[in-house]
């Protein structure tokens, strides 16, 4: 005796019969080969995808809704971090700054505001300082007409900052014909001077030979001292400077030149002819600012107007009389003549006029030195024909 025929929506669907569904409002016929229908309540109509023998849809859709070629599987290369992981798998660093850290902690590490404004500025300056140069050494003279304004200190501070942040070699050359004190800003490792470099030039075959004639600071800044004998110092002229500069250009990416007091000696001409940018040092008093401005006037009158336009003025606020003048007015004056101005704050280490321990400088001093270094680097050409 045959089994009684079962009825019901699901059973009739399998047999290809009608499927009334008053509860859902779904009406229509559902043949075995495919499904068509209409959702009468929602007013939605459409075709259901056909099913193959394994019960999988022959039309595939990616997660972003873009259909692939029918029947074509995705390759493993489609499983990228950008597609599968939030932020492409990039882990954001913890935020910096008191407020940003507080928000990060208060939201259980869900809201990361990133770096504080100060840190963003610092990172931008570091990126500018560390840019790569092509086509030879960049020369940066540091000069002024007046002595005692901290020119040698600024040269050392600038060199230490660049040497700390860059991976290549930085040298500071004391080209003061009247016995400079640049070598006294670091721990001396040699008694050699620029005179020794000149006399041994033909025997210097590589950096190992040259390195025995300089003192290297913990920051990796190399310093080449000036002559200490006053009788010999007068003999250091532009030809000697060119010998030293040519050798430095073989081994260093950036060469700072402490030009000494005054600007009319013969070494100055050779220094300016090689210069890619200038740092003019001014004190914070009336006469110091005026003499620094007169230095710019002399440079313009002698054909170095392009260097003046690209120059950076460093105002050393540790000199006498700074507290009595309007520094904003000094800055306003120099802003009309040069590319930029930086104030160097008072620091007991710098004021002592002795060995500078970079790591123990005040943070405000390091920040100002970093800003100065970034501005100097901005004025150096990235590429130049040799």
TrEMBL record:
<dbReference type="GO" id="GO:0051782">
    <property type="term" value="P:negative regulation of cell division"/>
</dbReference>
<feature type="region of interest" description="Disordered">
    <location>
        <begin position="1"/>
        <end position="76"/>
    </location>
</feature>
<dbReference type="InterPro" id="IPR027417">
    <property type="entry name" value="P-loop_NTPase"/>
</dbReference>
<dbReference type="GO" id="GO:0016887">
    <property type="term" value="F:ATP hydrolysis activity"/>
</dbReference>
<dbReference type="GO" id="GO:0005829">
    <property type="term" value="C:cytosol"/>
</dbReference>
<dbReference type="InterPro" id="IPR050625">
    <property type="entry name" value="ParA/MinD_ATPase"/>
</dbReference>
<dbReference type="GO" id="GO:0005524">
    <property type="term" value="F:ATP binding"/>
</dbReference>
<dbReference type="InterPro" id="IPR002586">
    <property type="entry name" value="CobQ/CobB/MinD/ParA_Nub-bd_dom"/>
</dbReference>
<dbReference type="GO" id="GO:0009898">
    <property type="term" value="C:cytoplasmic side of plasma membrane"/>
</dbReference>
<dbReference type="Pfam" id="PF01656">
    <property type="entry name" value="CbiA"/>
</dbReference>
<feature type="domain" description="CobQ/CobB/MinD/ParA nucleotide binding">
    <location>
        <begin position="144"/>
        <end position="300"/>
    </location>
</feature>
<protein>
    <submittedName>
        <fullName>MinD/ParA family protein</fullName>
    </submittedName>
</protein>
């Amino acid at each position: 005796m045959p089994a009684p025929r079962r009825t019901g929506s699901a059973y009739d669907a399998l047999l290809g019969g009608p499927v009334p569904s008053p509860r859902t409002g779904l009406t229509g016929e559902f043949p075995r080969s495919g499904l068509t229908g209409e959702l009468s309540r929602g007013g939605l109509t459409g075709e259901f995808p056909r099913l193959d023998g394994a019960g999988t849809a022959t039309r595939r859709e990616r997660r972003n809704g873009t259909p692939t070629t029918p029947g074509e599987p995705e390759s493993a290369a489609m499983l990228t971090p950008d597609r599968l992981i939030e932020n492409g798998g990039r882990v954001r660093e913890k935020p910096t700054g008191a407020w940003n850290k507080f928000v990060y902690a208060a939201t259980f590490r869900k809201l990361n505001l990133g770096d504080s404004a100060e840190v963003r500025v610092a990172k931008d300056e570091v990126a500018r300082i560390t840019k790569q140069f092509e086509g030879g050494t960049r020369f940066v003279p540091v000069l002024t007409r007046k002595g005692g304004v901290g020119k040698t200190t600024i040269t050392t501070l600038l060199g230490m900052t660049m040497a700390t942040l860059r991976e290549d070699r930085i040298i500071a050359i004391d080209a003061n014909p009247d016995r400079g004190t640049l070598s006294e800003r670091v721990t001396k490792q040699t008694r050699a001077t620029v005179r020794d470099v000149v006399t041994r030039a033909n025997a210097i075959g590589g950096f190992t030979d040259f390195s025995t004639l300089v003192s290297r600071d913990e920051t990796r800044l190399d310093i080449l001292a000036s002559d200490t004998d006053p009788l010999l110092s007068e003999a250091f002229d532009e030809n000697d400077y060119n010998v030293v500069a040519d050798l430095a250009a073989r081994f260093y990416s950036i060469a700072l030149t402490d030009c000494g007091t005054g600007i009319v000696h013969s070494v100055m001409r050779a220094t300016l002819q090689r210069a890619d940018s200038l740092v003019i040092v001014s004190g914070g008093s009336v006469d110091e600012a005026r003499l620094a401005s007169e230095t710019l006037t002399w440079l313009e009158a002698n054909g170095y107007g392009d260097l003046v336009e690209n120059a950076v003025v460093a105002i050393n606020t540790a000199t006498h009389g700074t507290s009595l003048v309007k520094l904003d007015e000094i800055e306003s004056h120099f802003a009309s003549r040069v590319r930029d101005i930086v104030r160097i704050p008072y620091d007991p280490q710098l004021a002592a006029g002795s060995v500078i321990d970079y790591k123990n400088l005040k943070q405000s001093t390091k920040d100002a030195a970093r800003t100065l270094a970034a501005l100097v680097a901005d004025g150096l050409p990235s590429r130049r024909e040799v």
